[in-house]
Amino acid sequence: MPGHRLPSLLIVLGLLQARQAAAEPAFRATVLSIGDGDTLRVRSGQERITVRLACIDAPETAQSPYGQKARQVLQWRLPVGQSVTIQPRSSDRFGRTVAEVISDTNINLALVEDGLAFAYRRYLAACDGAAYLEAEERARRQRLGVWRVPGGITRPWDFRRGRRSERIPDATTPDGSRHFCSQIGSHAGAQELMRQDHSYLDSDGDGEACESLR
Predict the structure, then answer these.
(1) Is 167 labeled as catalytic in the residue annotation?
(2) Could you report the per-residue pLDDT of 116-131, keeping only the tens digit for each?
(3) What's the whole-model pTM score?
């Protein structure tokens, strides 16, 4: 990202953060397992919770070797049994708690600082966006991790979009048929279909399929 664009982005993020509703209370939890470079399972009391790291997007596992490296470092930073603080920011369409994870440091921010994840601009308003953008810029200047490739590797969100297009040509199902919101019958059903790569049901790209069914 060109340096001269950074101040304007920080101003916008600051305005968005000022409007943000109060976050849910933080809670303590114990690490159970690491999924990939930006997901983990924790236990809080008797509850098992899947956590998606807020405000960042780590390379997909298929983006070798960067996805594997991000997962390995997250496993090293958060070994099984590690006690952490979970600061919820939101929840996603899969029911995961989207949160910042604090151990001896802010894990989300550290992954960006080390070039193991990107600042997820679409959702940065949930965190201290300025800190994430500045951390990414430092990693870019030092050519760490994903920034060893000039300009950085393919962004994970673009990589996922490309894979969906490969699996479902022309936004249709594998057998060539196509679903319509008026025929599905429920919002929950539409969300499940979207998880199965029927992404065209999310017409405005906000992560919600067939909002007219809500």
Answers:
(1) no
(2) 999 999 999 999 999 9
(3) 0.69
